[in-house]
Amino acid sequence: MIWLTSRFSIDLSRPQVMGIVNVTPDSFSDGGQHASTRAALAHCELLLKEGADILDIGGESTRPGAPPVPLEQELARVLPVVRAAVTLGVPLSIDTYKPQVMQAVLDLGADIINDIWALRWRDAPDGLDGRQVVARHPNCGVCLMHMHREPQTMQAAPMEGDVVPQVLSFLEHAAQDLQGLGVEKTRIVLDPGIGFGKTVAQNFALLARQSELLAAGHPLLAGWSRKSSIGAVASPPLGTSLPQGVHERMVPSVAAALLAVERGAHIVRVHDVLPTVQALQVLAAIK
Length: 287
Known about the structure:
Layout (H helix, E strand, L loop, with lengths): L1 E3 L4 E3 L4 E7 L14 H14 L3 E5 L12 H15 L6 E4 L3 H9 L4 E4 L14 H7 L4 E5 L17 H18 L7 E4 L8 H9 L12 E2 L5 H6 L16 H13 L4 E4 L2 H14 L1
Helix pairs in contact: 1-2, 2-3, 3-4, 8-9
């Protein structure tokens, strides 16, 4: 299976590790650590040394309750990093939902648009539409994610009922709509949106039954890294004083990534690249 992107045809016969580069001051896990262009590029280079196959660069936090970032601010954060990172020789994914940002990064040579809104966001002052941006590009890759409601409200009123068929139906329709605009199937990857408007139980139902999502006929991306659901189930024993912060979620995050790959995920989006790569090497060895 191949994921066609702007500059690369990515072979998905081997699980791909997508390293997260947050160029933000307020992301839930590493906000502020890579907010400058220099720091972000240094982190890109570190993730590549650790074995990342793809870099995912984002200029706006989408944690629950996060406020939206103005267009000009997101462009100022992201464009200098993309301009330099396109020289690193690996696929670049840009985590954005704004059509103007999509167009700008694709013009610089970015390979993939990774959109939590699945190209549904329409509040563009010039009428530009994310689906139009992707459809008129000859071959950029795109990742369509399921999100219930929006970042400001998604965890205030999570989804109800059996989450798996609802997510599958949404993703199938999103992919079909994009293909209807002329986008080749090989350009599209789907993401069930772990943590985006789901309860802890629903998130783990998506992992337990992840193979059902393969019915959509597209590669799957799994993004479990350091999510709050991980913290909810992997807490220290009662009565201990061990730390329970976001950075203590590395080991269970790697476990979730490994389980996702075993259940058919083709790409895992992670903060902790080296331990994820090592765990996948162990999985490959036993296969």
